[in-house]
Amino acid sequence: MSNPYRELFAAPGAKGFALAGLLARLALPMTGIGIITMLAQLRGSYALAGAVSATFVLTYALLSPQISRQVDRRGQGRVLPAAAAISAIGMLLLCASAWWQAPAWTLFVGALLAGAMPSMSAMVRARWTAIYRGQPRLQTAYALETVLDEVTFIAGPPLSVGLCVAVLPQAGPLAAALLLLLGMAALVLQRATEPPVEAHAPSQPSPPVIGLANVRLLALLMVAMGVIVGTVDIVSVAFAAQAGRPAAASGVLSAYAVGSALAGLLFGACKLRTPLHRLLLLGGLATAATTLPLLWVNSIASLAAAVLLAGLFFAPTMIVAMSLLERLVPAHQLTEGITWLLAGLNVGVALGAAAAGQTVDAGGAHAGFSVALYAGAAVLLLALWAHGRLRVQSLPAAQAA
Question: pTM, whole model, 2 decimals?
């Protein structure tokens, strides 16, 4: 039996850009938690640490699509070095300001600059698309990238926290900046697999892809899914702490990521003939349904089982959304489109964490799961809406065929 993932890497240069992208994308999950850990140690304020970290996350969500838009117009080799350098300078400013006890506003300036970090996940997905556009292997490539995203979000935070605690308070953010620069350099040096830039008349620049209604729908769907992730993160930590087993939270969160990664690998290996808009609806329905068991959690074991179940449908739904996006946006704006979806996911995670944190403070850990329930309902409604629009738009093509 053939291995679809091994077949992916038969393409020349695929292993190289995949490894470079994996190295560079570790910077994103390491930076947010690294800022919090660093400032909690050096400034003694979780409120300040959370605000500075949120500034980084939101700036990244706003800027990364614009950076990707420039990548689509000018190429990865021309844009990524400048964006990564600005981000690294911002992290250096953050670390220096924290160490020298500079005014708090300098921390926020550093976070704003650090938010210029390019979406390395989108850059790698764009390279896969340039190789396998229009082929079934592209969905397998998107599945692999989703799993690798999960891996970085499993490995990145504990690595960053461990460096900040065991080596130096600034070690986590500094390591993130170094990995970003090294991974970016390794990626842009691989010119043979860089997606080509299509020529456009300067007087007629392409409008932003977020102006497309279907892209906005998919981005909003990613926001709602991100809220579920952010809620699970915060409430799992609070639930484990209330149960007197705070260390168990890491196992619970690993169960969520492992469930998503395994489902993503399996989904990517399947050759499904079901239309993508129908798969999106099924994924949205399953994602919404799997938030319900969270309401009946009464132990660490049941929490782990519930989040494992919830994770099983996260990666497949995201893979389908990426596959739909590849068909919805012009080829020369694919990187921008992918980045909007990833940015939506990150915004959702931040919003979910904030909303769940307030709910937990007001009503306890168990009350925080209600945020995931509302987000699940939003996922279902958005999936229904997107399914209706995409089904209608696919009818003329099907009738013509």
Answer: 0.78
